[in-house]
Amino acid sequence: MKTGRNVMITSNLGIGYPGKVRRNIILQNHLNLVLKTGELVCLLGPNGCGKSTLIRTLSGFQPPLDGMVKIFDRVLTEMAPAEVSRSVSVTLTEPVDVGNMTVFAVVAFGRSPYTGFLGKLTHNDFEIIQKSLENAGISHLHNRQFNLLSDGEKQKVMIAKSLAQETPLLLLDEPTAFLDFPSKIEILQLLRNAAWEQEKAILLTTHDLNLALKFADKIWLMGADMPVITGVPEDLILKNEFGKYFNKEKTRFDILSGNFSFEVKEMGQVVLKGSGLKYDWMVKALQRKGFTVFTPENSSSDTLAIIKVNLENEDVFELKISDRVYKINSIEELFEKMDFSV
Domains in the chain and their CATH numbers? Predict the structure, then answer.
């Protein structure tokens, strides 16, 4: 994995839309951003802050309101369309209607910047298309009709098309939207491998903070009326930047767990004894239900119950309420007993 070669740089970039009557509608301004080879970058932010507009501006689909975008020191708005298509590949959220085309034919469109007016594929083009299908893990789908595929398979096809385009820069707007969790993992693994192994610079928008924290080399945080903050995920967490951009009245970003916590009704205090995997998940379950969890050393007189994990019989929990002791076989049964007994 190599990083460091600048592919795209923005200078004092302003994005938004030209106003019909009044002045421009500016979503973000003074953006000085860098995309490098070998990095997967996730763009995060609430709806309406300008994520999709930034993708469209960086790809040349709409002009900047101010400043400029450069690709390898060339100003994007001054590049010929053919030059842009060999530098940037784009996958947007809008559904693609390709009629009855096969997967192979859709991916082959990625070679159009190189095939000339007639669009005739050479032996080298066929090899690149086949390699792109393999890298996307969809070689077995090459003869399938695109419109009959699942959403996850369609996304892989569009990514394979971008790979076949052989551009140093890939821009993707919500490539994991509407996918199930395993498909999201596959897409992000595919993109990270493309960045690391093929030295691509990849920028994608997403609303999935947890997956972005696991896969992204860099994160760009965007918010309405807030500057864009960039950095390594762990640095942004330690600086509590996520809290600044995502915290709301009843939602908080937990800097310790890297997850969001939600306001729940306080149910009381319990003491939890034990260790190991079941202990960890018991803590999560109790906190989700609104209980404050203490260790025996930190307990108080207000304790409602004592729970022991990892007894000699590891499938059994011990629940003590007042002077009564219960043997419990599952967390679900434990909650039922607590609700009934407390």
Answer: 6-248 (3.40.50.300), 268-341 (3.40.50)
